[in-house]
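INFO  loader      accepted 1 record
INFO  loader      residues=151
INFO  predictor   begin
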Amino acid sequence: MTGDDLDFDSITVPVDLPEVLDHISYQRVVENAGATWDYFPGHFDPEYAQRQGNPTIYVNTMHLAGFADRVATDWAGPGSRVVRRSLRLTGSVYAGDTMIGRGRAVAKRRDDSVDPPRCLVDIEIQVTNQHGALCCPVELTLQMPWRPETA
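INFO  predictor   done
INFO  writer      dumping C-alpha cells
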C-alpha cells in the first residue's frame, strides 16, 4: 500500500519503502544550485570542482534533502508532510551519477502534546550512488493523515 491509500493506521512498522532512482545530469546539478541560490562554484564550475579534488560538479545539500523527502513522500502520498529531517553528508553525488534512495519506516507514534494530535512515522533513508557508496544517511519524520473509522 502506497500513496493515496496510505494513512497512519494502515502502516505496520518496520516496512521497506520502494527504491527511488534519479539520474543526475550536468544540467540538473546547475539548475538546482541556481534555483536554490547556491552559487558555490563546486555546483556549476567543473574546473573549480576538479581543483578541489572532485571529478566534476556535484549536487548541493538542498538537492539531497529534497531527494530524501521524495523517497519518503512518494511512498506516503500527498497527504503526508515532512516535519523533521536530519542528514549527514558522507560522500558526493556528481553529475553523471545515479542517486539511489532506499528507505525504511522504523517507528510510528501519536504526538498528543498538540491539538489535534499528530500521527508521526520515523523513516531512515540511505542515499547512495550507482557504485553503492553511501553519500547521505537521512532520518526524517513524516506527519501522516489519520482517517478515523466513521460509524
